[in-house]
Description:
The structure holds 2 protein chains of 2 kinds.
Chain A: E1 3-12, E2 15-21, E3 30-34, H1 41-53, H2 71-75, E4 82-92, E5 96-111, E6 114-130, E7 138-140, H3 143-154, E8 163-165, H4 177-188, H5 191-214, H6 220-264, H7 269-325, H8 335-343, H9 358-370, H10 375-432, H11 442-537, E9 544-549, E10 555-559, H12 571-588, E11 595-598, H13 606-619, E12 625-629, H14 636-642, E13 648-654, E14 661-665
Parallel strand pairs in A: 3-12, 3-13, 8-11, 11-12
Antiparallel strand pairs in A: 1-2, 1-4, 4-5, 5-6, 6-7, 9-10, 13-14
Chain B: H1 5-13, H2 18-33, H3 38-57
Helix pairs in contact in B: 2-3
Amino acid sequence: MIRFSKIEFINYRQYKSVVVDFSENGQYDLHILRAKNGTGKTTFLNGILWCLYSHEHYLNDQEKALPIVNNSVVQSTVKGSPISVSVKLTLTNGEEVIVFDRTQIFYVKEVGGVKSTYEGEARLRVLITPLNNAANTTVYEDELEVQSLVKQYFDESIYDYYFFDGENLKSYFAKGKSEKIKSSIFNIAQVTLLSNAAEHTRTKEVELSRASKKIKGDETQTLTEEIIALEADIAKYELENKSIDDELPTLKSKYEVADRDLREYSPIRLNTAKRKDLEIEIKNLSDDLNALNAKKKEFIIKYLTLLNLYPRIKATYDLIVAKQTAGNLPPSIDKKQLQHLLDSHSKYCPVCNGTLDERAISHLEALLQSLDVSSATSNFLMEIKGALEEMLVECQKYEKLRDELLSQEKYLRDEIAKKEDEAARISSFLARYSDADQKFDVKKAEADRQRALDRMNSLTTRKTLNESLLVQLKADLESKKQEREKQDGKKEKKDLFDRQLLVYRRLTSRFEYIQNLIMSEIKKDIESQTWNRFETMIWKKNTFGNVTIDDNYEISVYNTTHNEMTGSLSATEYMALAYSFTLAIHDASGKNCPLVVDSPLGRVSDDNRTNMASELLKVSQSKQIIMLFTPDEYSDEVRALYDDNAASIRNICLSENEEEIASIGGRYER
Amino acid sequence: MPISEKIKMHIDSIDESEEFKKLMLSILSEEDKGTFRFKIVYDELVNEYLKESEDSDS
């Protein structure tokens, strides 16, 4: 249950310094405030409205009313000084203490000896303190947040359903109001909260569905297969190279033994020594050839660019030279300055201070015409001219350098071939060698040497090839692994999106389901509770048949023969309907808010008066009701019901000068 | 403001796990604080729920 526990006024109209406590006392949470007309009953109600909405809805004429600041305070305050006006509402909802605290500063001014005020800064703040943690107060000062909190408790669009004026029911069932009632009930009953939550979870659904679709199908399996194949190839080539590495030392040893034996056998020593020399020479020549090949590569790259650009380089260079030859690029003459000199019609040359006669001016004009580029362009062209010249010289060297490289290459290849032939002839001789002594089998040793050499060459070539393949395969493997990592990340993301999507779908459907359920329940509850209360409050028992509420929350009363009679209700019946509907709205909203009523029985008479007072007393067992009576309105039949049951009964009394409330209390306070 | 008893009662009566009901209430509480942060906060809550569900499954 939401209830006022205290209302404090400072300098608010006649409530100069008033604290009204609404402690619970007994089984009824009914509080009576009695005051003569003009004492401040409606001001009490307006004070609450001003605190919540900054607007006094029950003021007869806002524009012609006195300012809200207490007049006696204004009169006793020095001109220019501030006066703070505040109303503070303290509520509890069973879990928290909520304080709505509005303060408005006024400054005193004085014109012609008459003191009045002008408005200064104003603010409404809301302080929320959990009942189980008094030290943890949250203060809300942001305008939007504060307004939202006010709306959650006492929506301004239906303020008269919380702060009821029994004398002012004209607009209670006015046309167009039902829409406000509906939207406000949905807001208070948190149907709007459910609908906002459903809308947002639906938005998330759409976003996630799009994001999930953007992530393409799973390529992880294909990539894993490719990685396995690459790893197998790499292992195969590495194993082959390892076996080559294992075999090479043995082959080298065999080769060296056979070679040494051959070189140490004196009848062929000259041949073997010669072959060794040739082999060394071939090795050196091959190294030179390799170095030349590298040089040739650089040469090709350099001239590929230069020769491709040659026509443009040449054309640009020729253009610069042509302009220079024609005198169009004189670096010392600034075209702009020359133009300025002619435009200013100066009589003297700024360089030599000589007279600028007609002849000189004609010469300058001719010179200006001949300069078809600016000085900046001219300087730039002169700068690149040198670089272009160097490029052209390089291009001219091309054929000579190319021929030199080719001739060197040819020489080295011929030399290598010649020496290889010579070495091969020696090898052939040794392969066929035999002598009479048979002391050493030259043929076999030569065959062993050659076999080892051939095998070594073959294995080395194979290993080089494998190594080059391994570099490529390892690069491919790395790239595939990176791609798979990316795919793994994508798959993980897609999985998460899909799981989130399912949760959001369930949330949307559940929120919508509960929203529809509550909306339907609310309408039914309001209809049945309005009818039940209305029937109890009215003395006529055979006239009214039922009350209906349509989907737009328009209320209709029917008689026992099912004819609508809403427009034919008496003032008392109309008030009973208003009470019934108000209390039904309170119940159906799911928020048990307090009801503050000015002139609660003002328009009610006869048996209806007792019925209504009795029904409201019953309601106060589970809802706080604060009633503001005039002494006449608090008649004997009401007194009989309330004097012994109300939680508090107090009189509001004005001071003698009638400018402030002197007391709230008196003999009726329990 | 606290979520109404009526909503709590309806959430309690739907055929869902306790974790999911808790998630619904958390989302409504966040929604109640204002709609500006819902995109980030909803995801945090849903991810927390998914993690809790996984933990209780395993």
